[in-house]
Structure formats: structure tokens, C-alpha cells
Amino acid sequence: MCGIVGYIGSQQACPILMEGLGRLSYRGYDSAGVAVLDAAGHINVRKAKGRLENLAGLLEQSPVAGLSGIGHTRWATHGEPSDLNAHPHTDLKGGISIVHNVIIENHESLRRHLQNQGCVFVSQTDTEVVAHLLSVLYEGDMRDALIKAMGMLEGSYALGVLCDAEPGRLLCARHESPLVVGAANGAAFIASDIPAMLSHTRDVIFLQDKEIAVLSADGIEVFDQLGEARRHELYHVAWDLSSAEKGGYAHYMLKEIHEQPQALQSTFTPRNVGDPHEYRWLPVTPEEAKRLRKISVVACGTAYHAGVFGKYVIEKLARVPVTADIASEYRYRDPIIGEEELFIAVSQSGETADTLAALREAKRRGAKILAVCNVVGSTIAREVGDTNTLYTYAGPEIAVASTKAYMTQVEMMLLIALALADMRGTIAPEEAERLRHELAGLPAKAEKALLTEEKLQWFSSTASQKKHVFFVGRGLDFALSMEAALKLKEVSYVFSEAYAAGELKHGPIALLQEGRLVVATITQPSLLDKTLSNLREIKARGARILAVCREDLQDRVVGEADELILIPAADDLLAPLLAVIPLQLFAYCMAVARGCDVDKPRNLAKSVTVE
Ligand code: G6P
Hints:
Structural class: alpha/beta
Distance between the termini: 11 Å
Bound molecules: 6-O-phosphono-alpha-D-glucopyranose
Number of strands: 25
């Protein structure tokens, strides 16, 4: 995944592009570049390997001036991160400059074709092919050249194009990769994601697949692949820049952990209006709910862990079999799914390639499709349609490691479980009412769970040199442990794995010895005795135990663990959402104690739009 920005207007483009790139650097940060068209009609390109600061340094030594330009922050797919492979790429004469996201699948055959026509390639990227292709196809109108090129490109792309022969225009196009264009007075913007333009405008258009936008200081025109004009209403973004900035926190990850009470509230409120037994927000009728034979929850990474949580709660409440699958496995394993089955794709970004492909496969096989998604206008949301998309209202998530989006995904799983259970008659109405009431009180308890930060900071300072950490739990606590282990490895690079506590003795216990650290999550009273005997097995091997435990269970756990982190008492199904918070804080504090780049962990990207 990479980030694209573009600007045309009456101000200097370069500072605007750099600001936008800064806000997109979560999308990739192994190299960056800008191309700006100067007053003399020349495109000046600057690019640098490494973080955006390197590019900023280069621009200080060698500034570029001009009122239109494009920029890019890269996460390498074709060709190593290097100055040469960084975008923008230009054609031979340097008159066409482009930035690109995702992959041109037929780049090799196009490259051969273009080389035969005399094009000389300087980088290893698939992107450079597009710059040369546009140059060959250009006959005086870049829009027409782009239309022709799109007919020849296979794969997915978001493109930004700057052309020295057309100084008053900036062009972009997309296919299966996000691209937003923004309109302001006398200026227009391109970006892969809204925060990049938010300090300039909140009025945006989400381009659809195979659409082209032609931007000028006077406005934006959108065309389809045949060159027919398309009408788009401007969408006014509800959140502002402060929602996408650090707001005094040391890192986005910490800020986003602290935003979880609000995120819980915002996601719950729209599902708690009107007749509580009608579930208008869920596009499943009571008849459909009763006929449901199976539910498949499919996702990647953190979102997959929310799916595992969903499996536990939906089966428990709604008494319908649920499978939770990793999308990259699901899509290739000839899945059994069809009518009267529900497929739920979970995705923060709504752009994950594997999740999207799995969703299409399930759709093709006749399943009813829902998406749980955080980004309005994202590819998955559009593919499924707004009616069938259950938005999590976590707000913009910038840190690569997902926290508040996960929280709202598990909350959404609970809400779906509750709604289906009520419609299927597998829960007493008063019990459904009680759970809803508990859910309404969750944000206040989440605030209290955040108070564990100080103790975790201290604990992490004593544990930061650990090389291995195991996470254990049973039932919902196992689902949480999977996410906790992922969070720790993502941001602190400590080897961490999650095990179902009862499974320890079937192998992993061989790894336990003096000095190992085990984090146990304990929120389920019905499984407490079993979990405690697992803790004794761990203790007997000399490992140190940190227990994240419900306040009302502490009397039983004290003495069994070396350190206790207490979360407020809550219903058995809801307490895990509170336990998530100290587990995330633990990962965060460990990463800080180890001096890691918390918001931009190595090798990771916020959303993975390639296979
Ligand atoms: C990437 C991110 C993960 C995320 C996963 C799924 O791997 O680094 O944090 O959980 O993609 O992303 P999605 O946007 O589909 O939830």
C-alpha cells in the first residue's frame, strides 16, 4: 500500500503535498517523492529513499516551486525501496510524471512492448510502465491518453498524473484502489485518504472504479472509461483534522487507545434507537435470521481476530454455527457457502485485497453479504452497498497497529449476536434488554480500564528485554489473547504467541521455563477454575505471570499470578472488551520501552491492497 497526493490551485504546491504525505505516511514509508510543475512549464521531481524527513531534507537543499504537483509515499512491492524506485516516475522526456498505488499485473508485457518502441526504463517498478505508456498514447489531451491507457492496464491502480503540456490540469484515475478528490475555493486535491486534504477541504468525491477526474483551480470533472461525464455529489466529511491528529499524545496508537470509550459510544448509539426489538440497522429480516444455516466471518489480521470473537458470541447467543476465517485462506479453499448463509467481511480500511476477493467469492456463490467496515466510501463498503455495510464509527485510525477499530469491530460482533439472537428467539427479551443496557454503560467502564496505563508502563519497563511472551486464555479470553499477541509482535517486535490455555499442555508448555513471561486474560467466571489450574502449570515451570483480570474475580486470582491488572466488573460477554484495553496498552508500553517506532512498525502497512 502507498499514499498519493495531488494539488492544483493558487498556492505553492510543495508544502501542501508534503503536509498531505505526512498524513498518509501510515500507508507506506520506505521512500517518498514529489513532482511539481514550475512557472516555466518544467516538471521538477525530487525523491528520496527512507522516511519523509529525507525528502524534506532534499527539498530544503533543492526546493521546487509551482502551483500544481503530485506526491507519493511508498511501500515497496516491485523493486527495492530506493531513490530510483521511489515515485513519481516520468516518461523519457520528463514531461509526464505519475504516482501510482497497487499493482499493474501486465507490466512485464507492456514493458517489452514499450521497449520495442524505444522507451528506456530506469527503475524496476511496474509504475514506470504507465508513465511511458501515457507518453506513447498522448496526442494532445491527457484525459484521452489516460482513457486509452486504462484500456490496456490489467490489475489495480490509483494514479495521479501531471503533464507539462497541460499546466492548468491535474488528472487522476482509479481501479480497485482508493482515491478521493477534494474541492475547495480555487483549488482541488487528490489523495488516497481524506486526512491528507482535511486541513484544506472537507468536501470530497470518492471516485468509483475506472473513473477519471480532471482537476483544475476552477473545479473537478469526472468521466467514465468511455469519456462520458459522470455526476457526483460532494460528500461533506463529518470529522475534522483534530480527529486525525495526535492531540497531545506521544503517538497515534496511544491516542487511539484513549479514544475507545468514544468509539464504543459512537458505534452503539445508532444501533440503540427506535424499537429495540426491530433492529432496523441490521439488514437481515427476522425470517432470514430464523432460516440462517451458517455464518462465515472472514477478514485479515486484527479484523480476523474480531471475527474469532464474533464466532464465540454469535454462536453463544444466536445458536447458529459460525466459522471465522482468514481471508487469504478462505478465498482459495473452495469454500462451502451458499443461500441461507450469511457472509460477514470485517475490515477497518475496507480496502484489504484478500478480504475483498473472499467477499466476491461468497457473493458469487449466493450468500447474503454484510460488511463491518470503518471507512465510508471504501471499496468493500461500495461493493457491498451502504445498506449492507455496518459502519464502525471508530473515526480515522492512523496508527498502523489497529486498536479502536478492533474495539468497535468486537462491539459490532456483540450487537449482531444480540440482534440475531432476539430475532431467532434464542435469548429472552429481558436478557437482550439487560445486555443492551450493559452495552450502554461500557464506555464509562472503558474509561476506567484506561487507568491501568501507569501500572503497565512500570511493568513493561521490567519486562522490555523479554524475548518471548505467551498469551493465554480460554473462550473469549483466547480470542482476545490472539489479538494481544499480534499487537505485541507488531509494535515491539517481541516474539509472541497466543495459546488456548487448555492447549498449553499439548505442546507449547515445552517452551516454558524460568524467566518466560506469560500474560493471562481472565474475564470468564465459568472457566475460572480451569484457567487457574493452567496458571499453576505455568508457575510450576518458573514462568512469570501477568494476569489481566476482572475486579470481581481478583480474590481467586491473587496469589496465582505475579502481577494483577484489574479491569472493572462487567457482564461475561462484555468484560473482554474492557480487557482489550490493558492488553493494547501493554503492547504500546513495551514498544515504547524498547524504543520502537510505535506508529510505523517495520515492514507493515495500514491496509494491504495487494495479495
Ligand atoms: C494490515 C494491517 C492490520 C490489519 C489488516 C486488515 O495487515 O497492518 O493492522 O488488521 O491489514 O486490515 P483491514 O483494514 O481489512 O481491517
